[in-house]
Amino acid sequence: MQRKRLQPGLKLALGFMLLIAIGTLLLYLPVSHQDGADMSLIDSLFVATSAICVTGLTPVDISQTLSLFGSTVLMLLIQVGGLGYAVIAVIIIRLASGRIDASTGNLLRDSLGADHRIDTKRLLKAALSVTALIELMGAALLFISFSERYPFWRAVYLSVFHSVSAFNNAGFDLFSDSMMKWNTDALVLITIASLIALGGLGFILYNDLFEHFRNGKKISVHTKIVLSTTAFLIISGTVLFRLVLPDIDWKNAFFQSVTTRTAGYFSYDQTILPPAGVALTIVLMFIGASPGSTGGGVKTTSFYTAVKAAFSLLLGRNPAAFKREISQESVMKAFFVIIISVLLVAAAAFLLTVTDPQFTADKILYETVSAYATVGLTMGITPYISTGGKIILIIMMFLGRVGFMTIITAFARRRASGARYLEEKVIIG
Question: Which pLDDT band holds residue 320 (cuts at 50, 70, 90)?
Answer without folding.
Answer: confident
